Every structure is written in structure tokens, then in C-alpha cells.
Amino acid sequence: MLEVAAVFPERIDAQDRCEGCAVRYAARTLLASRITLLLCLGLTSCASGGDAGSPAEGDDGGPTQGLPDGSVGDSGLGGHDATSIHDVATIDTSTGGGEAGFDSGADTGSISDSASPGDTGTAGDSSSICPQHGFSGALVTFDFTGQAGSEASVTATTTAPGITGGVLARAAGLSAVSGANSINSSGWSTAAMADQTLYYTFSVTPAAGCTLSLASLAIQTTASGTGPAHFDVGTSVDNYTALSTAYGGTSTDTVTLSATAAGAITIHVFGYAATGSSGTMRVEGTLSLTGSIE
Asked: Which CATH class is domain 136-293?
């Protein structure tokens, strides 16, 4: 009967861990239960004398032949059979246990693998990344349509997501002058280079955790006959030391910029080389700053 125990696998193959093997597992368990039941029935008949025994075992199958007291004598055979039952039960139990172990282990493994969504805790890392990461385009736009020219400042018309555009204003050293659909000023430097105190200015501020990279400034300016002959553009990133190429006082240009900062950046537009203190230079039309957010 020990040979029958070989019917039961001692372990479950790794491929049986999948959910699709549940039916096979149930069938094997049922088969194991039925064989165990048949073995038990057979052993019961042996215990009652149905087992003929074999000469090699020294037992002719009779209940009173064995030890003199007859009670435990045949139990020698019964004991052997009981051992067989124990072996079978052990194998069956280990199979079941192994199955259960694999099931729970596999499931638990899956759960712990699922806990790799705890890797989605990487999303926790993602939460610290800039929400506007990857944006590229217009960061802020100012439209001067409808402005009087002498206004103290102009509010940004549009801004990119997460960007604070602030307002465009003139430096304290300039004087406001009327001029339809613009912001206009006089009092510009007559020197051949930019005066760091005379400018139009505005700032852009990204959301927390974001870095700004400026690419260009599209600007339209008009100077009076005695107004600035040129203007330059600088940023707070290098404290306005590396100014752009000089542009004409009256022009529509796209100024190339190269400035990156993990925070607010201020832009200055310096007018200079005026031929008279009453000469004016205005910013009109639409001013647009482009760049990217990282």
C-alpha cells in the first residue's frame, strides 16, 4: 500500500501556482480523498481478518494467530497497515499542505509584488516633481490694446499653467507719457550704452518645484524722433550683465534669451542712445515671452 502513496505528488509544480490550475488541484485532491477512503476500507477489512497476510510476514491472516494473546498479535499486521495509512495520510497532508503553502505563498508573493505598487510610491516621488514638467511655449503674454500709454503698469493677458506673470511696469526714473495702445515713457538715457536704472520690467514665477528656461521675447517698440535709438534685454539670472544684441528703438523683433532658474526670473528692457530727455519709447501691440518648464 505504500506504493499507492506515490500517486500523491510531494510538491506542487511551479506552474500549478496559477489560478488556471485550480481545477486540476481540486481534481487531485478529490482523487486523493477517494484513494485514502479505499485504503481505509481495505485496512478495516484486514483488521477484521480479511487480510490473508503472507508467510513472509509470519501471519496467516487469522485474528488469533500471531502473538499468544491474540489481541495485539494481529495488531502487528494492523500496526503495519496503520503505518501505511499514516504514510499515505502524511503524503496527502504534505501535498495539501504544500498546495496550501504554495497557494498562500504565491498569493502572498503576489500581494507583496502588488506592493510593488508601493513602487508607485515612486509616484510619491512624482508628487515632488513639477506639475507643469515638460511644458514648452508662451509663458506670459501682455496685450496693450486699449491701454492709454501713461498707465502705471499692464497686467499679463495670459500665462502658462502654474506661471505667475505679474505686471509690466516702467522704472521709477522714467516718466509716463500718453500713447494709445501702449505703455509709453520718456526720460531715457542719452548714453551709448544701457543705463541699468532705466527700463521696462516684468517677472515670471513658476510653481513650487519647477524650473524655468527662457527662450525668446517677442516685442514691438516705437521710439519718437528724439527717443532711444536702441534697446537691449537682460535678465535677473546674471544680474543683467549679459545683455542681448542691440535692437532698434523702433522695431518688431524676437530677442533670443538664455536664462534658467528654479524660481522667478525678472526681465528688463533697457532703452538708450536717446537724443533728448523728452524723447519717448513705447512698447505696444503684444509682448510674449516663451520658454519651457521643467
From this structure: mainly beta
Q: pLDDT tens digits for 125-160?
A: 444 589 999 999 999 999 999 999 999 999 999 999
Residue 1: C-alpha distances to residues 23, 38, 80, 146 (Å): 27, 11, 10, 103
> Of the candidates 223, 225, 226, which has an alpha carbon nearest to the alpha carbon of residue 270?
223
Instruction: Count CB atoms within 10 A of the CB of residue 188.
Output: 33
Q: What are phi and psi of 272, to 5 degrees?
A: -160, 175
Which residues fall within 8 angstroms of residue 162, CB to CB, at 6 or more apart?
Answer: 130, 131, 132, 135, 206, 207, 210, 293
CA distances from 34 to 99, 242, 262 (A): 18, 90, 74
Tell me the HSE value of 198 on the side-chain side, using a 13 A CA sphere: 25
Q: Record the cell numbers describing residue 143, joined without a space.
A: 496685450
Sequence-separated (6 or more) residues with CB below 8 Å from residue 262: 206, 210, 211, 212
Longest dimension (CA), the chain: 140
Which of 187, 175, 171 has the alpha carbon at shortest distance from 149?
A: 175
Distance CA 47, CA 66 (A): 13
> Which residue's entry shows cell 518645484?
209
Q: Which of 79, 5, 11, 77 is nearest to 39 (CA)?
A: 5
Compute, in degrees rounded to 10, the torsion defined by CA atoms 157, 162, 167, 168. Answer: -80
Q: Which amino acid is at 273?
A: A
Q: Where are the domains positioned within the chain?
A: 4-124, 136-293
> Residue 226 phi/psi, 5° resolution?
-110, 10
Task: Give per-residue pLDDT as tens, 57-90.
Answer: 444 444 444 444 444 444 434 444 444 434 433 3
